[in-house]
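Quick review question:
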């Protein structure tokens, strides 16, 4: 970076590059900027602020007291402190070093809404553990005016920097426990970054909603988890179909001679066997 750049210009560049960091790569971007900017104090200041936003936006999971806690806007207490409603504790998190500290008990009133939240967390956690190879979830309460809302967050990621790709799947589900019927709104986000032979970014967003009956706690938890699973399966299937269609389209364009796509299984071992048999017969006929 040119030494002639003013501090505001450096800040603008640092912020722009940090905000573009794909999931799982924020720390590496910070390290690269240390060598580029050569102003450690300025970089630490900006990286700490943007790192907090990055972690909360991506539902970054951290290990605290043997529990996996998601960093989100919904459990942010301010001052880099977060709470975990399931085990009733709070902690401080350093967004640059990734270190947790100063764990304290966090009191939560055990009212009817907390019982619902706990039941929703338990049901959703069972589903996530079965559906995702390495998934995490948490259910939070939040106030919207005089209304008490629930937000269920799901996060699953696979970071493979040595294989040159990283990916994040996350979703959040918002609803209020209104009598008889409630509207559940879900937002999916899938991000993929491949950086071996190209710099490829893929981002998929989708919103869904449905009305669910609210009769009792067990019924609603069951219906809510079924709804999440159904929508997860739908978007997963749609992504695979789009990838297949894209792959076939690329093959059709790249082949010099357009070949028909018959989707017929070719038994190459049998073809090679027949070829060798025909070759042996021909050789014997020539020798005769």
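Suggested answer, residue by residue:
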């Amino acid at each position: 970076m040119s030494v002639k750049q003013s501090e505001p210009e450096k800040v603008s560049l640092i912020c722009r590059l940090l905000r573009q960091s794909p999931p799982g790569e924020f720390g590496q971007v910070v390290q690269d900027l240390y060598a580029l900017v050569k102003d450690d104090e300025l970089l630490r200041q900006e990286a700490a602020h943007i790192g907090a936003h990055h972690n909360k936006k991506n539902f970054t999971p951290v290990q605290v007291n043997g529990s996996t806690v998601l960093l989100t806007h919904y459990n942010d207490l301010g001052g880099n402190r977060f709470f975990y409603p399931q085990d009733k504790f709070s902690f401080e998190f350093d967004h640059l070093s990734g270190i947790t500290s100063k764990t304290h008990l966090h009191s939560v009133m055990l009212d009817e809404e907390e019982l619902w939240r706990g039941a929703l967390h338990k049901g959703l956690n069972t589903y996530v553990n079965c559906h995702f190879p390495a998934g995490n979830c948490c259910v939070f309460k939040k106030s919207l005016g005089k209304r008490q809302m629930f937000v269920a967050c799901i996060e699953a990621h696979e970071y493979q920097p040595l294989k040159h790709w990283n990916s994040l799947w996350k979703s959040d589900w918002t609803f209020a426990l209104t009598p008889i019927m409630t509207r559940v709104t879900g937002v999916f986000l899938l991000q993929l970054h491949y950086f071996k032979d190209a710099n490829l970014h893929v981002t998929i967003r989708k919103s869904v909603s449905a009305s669910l009956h609210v009769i009792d706690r067990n019924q609603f938890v069951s219906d809510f988890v079924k709804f999440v699973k159904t929508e997860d399966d739908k978007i997963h299937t749609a992504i695979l179909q789009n990838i297949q269609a894209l792959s076939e389209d690329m093959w059709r364009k790249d082949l010099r001679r357009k070949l028909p796509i018959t989707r017929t299984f070719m038994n190459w071992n049998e073809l090679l066997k027949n070829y060798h048999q025909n070759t042996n017969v021909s050789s014997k006929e020539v020798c005769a």
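Why it works: The longest helix spans residues 217-254. The helical segments are 7-19, 26-37, 40-57, 112-131, 217-254, 268-287.
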